[in-house]
Amino acid sequence: MSNFDYDLFVIGAGSGGVRASRIAASHGARVAVAEDYRVGGTCVIRGCVPKKLLVYGAHFAEDLKDARHFGWDVPDCKFDWDRLRDNVQAEVTRLEGLYGQTLENHKVTVFKTRATIAGPQKVRLADGTELTAERILVATGGWPHVPEFPGSEHAITSNEVFHLDKLPKRVVIAGGGYIANEFAGIFNEFGSKVTIVNRGDTILRGYDEQIRDRLLQISMTKGIDFKFNAPFEKIVKNDDGTLTVHLGGCEPIVADAVLVAAGRVPNTKGVGLEEVGVDLDDHGAIKVDESNQSSVPSIYAVGDVTNRIQLTPVAIREGQAFADSVFGGKPTVVDYQNVPSAVFSHPPIGAVGMTEAEARNKLGSIRVYTSDFRAMKNVLAGRNERALYKMVVNAATDQVVGLHMIGPDAPEILQAAAIAVKAGLTKADFDNTVALHPSMAEELVLLK
Q: Is there a contact between 132 and 217 (Cβ–Cβ < 8 Å)?
């Protein structure tokens, strides 16, 4: 028998931590996991799942109007934020229960409290209880970054936005990344006046330039206001509860809520990592090797806390790879090439592989194919909003090295197309595939 209380102790019951716990336990390990908030982590509790439900709710604003063009006599409808908020939270609670049940079914011990590292093979619970484990896995995820400026305490982050008491009539959103653009689309469709404030001059860094320019154009057409090169100076809370946002180079903006979406940082503060010699990078992320092992051999880490690729499916892959490698006798390394991603903006974006700029930089000779079209539904609905599909091809090999899309259902279409890019298929392979007509996805096999 082992001299340790557990073979594996996991700190953090998010997507990566739950997957690692479940798989390690299925391999016969004695596993415990500690979570100081709610089982499920950022994605399930206050991230991609509740956000996607809000995105679905926001889409009805346009769908109800468009339905009239398709013969439906739809009256003017009123949106009820309280009802959607409460329904979303009920679904989150349901999912939290399923995650907890999964751990219970695999005989994983769950401590619903904070845990910190007290030694290379020791953890300390909030009540002072100390437990030993042969291996410790840190899966504490990321945390919203709020820059320091006067009045920053009056702003909210993506942690709090799902619990607003009422729908703000005017929202200022700080940031230009995917979270900022997603919530801009959500609140705009709910009827709020939305202003995105960006200290730089670009939205969605890392995405293809044509695609992000198209989103900017469509967003402005929908009524979203953008302020570029406008750093926050201060937020002043007024006597009536409203907020005045003071920006560099811009007139002050009065708002009912300010959402800071300025990126996420690894959640490593106060975990006890540095005290036991775990190396962190300049951003506070845990440095790990390809086996998810830190500088302390008994301590591992997966997910956003390592700041490799901050995506839930990547954290799940890393958790699975860790458990299979360490406890299942199946050494597994996660492949980070051609990881697809999406922005659930209005309209949404899907992307995989290299952007045009990246491909030109790396490959030199490339071919680029685009399709710029109005979706059939938009035509009949009288909407001028256009979709844009873009394929980047290595001219020397004909291999498709990047796909970038913006338009209705782009992420749903991109998921299947990402398989082709991951498999290294060529433009000729796409051309040889018969189109599925009439569909938006057929544009991918008709690019000339």
A: no
Does 214 fall in a domain?
A: yes
Q: Are the C-beta atoms of 99 and 44 separated by less than 8 Å?
A: yes
Spatial contact of 384 and 438, defined as CB atoms under 8 Å apart: no
The DSSP secondary-structure symbol of 432 reads: T
CA distance 68 to 18: 45
Whole-angstrom Cα distance, residue 395 to residue 180? 36
Q: What residues contact residue 354 under an 8 Å CB cut-off, 6+ apart?
A: 362, 363, 392, 401, 402
H-helix or E-strand spanning residue 102: helix 81-105
Q: Are residues 140 and 15 in the same domain?
A: yes
User: Among 190, 217, 219, which residue's Cα sits nearest to residue 62?
Assistant: 190
Could you list the residue range(s) of the whole structural domain that residue 73 is in?
A: 6-144+265-327
* Cα 54 from Cα 39, distance rounded (Å): 21
Would 339 be classed as within a structural domain? Answer: no
Decide the pairing of beta strands 400-406 and 387-394.
Answer: antiparallel
**What span, in angstroms and rounded, lies between the C-alpha atoms of 320 and 17?**
9
Residue 322 and residue 212 in one domain = no
**Is residue 164 located within the same domain as residue 214?**
yes
Structure tokens at 176: 């230009």
- Together in a domain, 285 and 355: no
Question: Would you say 404 and 207 are in contact if contact means Cβ atoms under 8 Å apart?
Answer: yes
Measure the CA–CA gap between 39 and 1, rounded to whole angstroms: 30
Domain boundary among 262, 296, 317: 262
pLDDT digits (tens, 9 = 90+) for 118-154: 999 999 999 999 999 999 999 999 999 999 999 999 9
Statement to judge: residues 206 and 104 lie in one domain: no
Residue found by looking up tokens 């073979």 in the block: 7
- With cut-offs at 50, 70 and 90, classify the pLDDT of residue 2: confident
Q: Is residue 332 within 8 Å of residue 323, measured between CB atoms? A: no
Number of domains in the chain: 3
Q: Are residues 306 and 254 in the same domain?
A: no
Same domain? For 53 and 11 the reply is yes
Query: What are the structure tokens assigned to 260, written together?
Result: 């800071």
Residue 114 tokens read as 């904070």
Q: Is residue 336 part of a domain?
A: no
Strands 400-406 and 6-11: unpaired
Summarised one tens digit per residue, pLDDT across range 380-389 is: 999 999 999 9
Angle separating helix axes 81-105 and 15-26, nearest 10 degrees: 20
- Kindly state the tokens that stand for 188: 């705009």
Which positions are catalytic? 437
Between CA 88 and CA 206 the distance in angstroms is 30
Q: 3-class SS at 74?
A: coil
Give a yes or no: residue 337 inside a domain.
no
Give the chain's mean pLDDT. 97
Q: Using CA atoms, how far apart are residues 299 and 310, in angstroms rounded to an integer?
A: 20
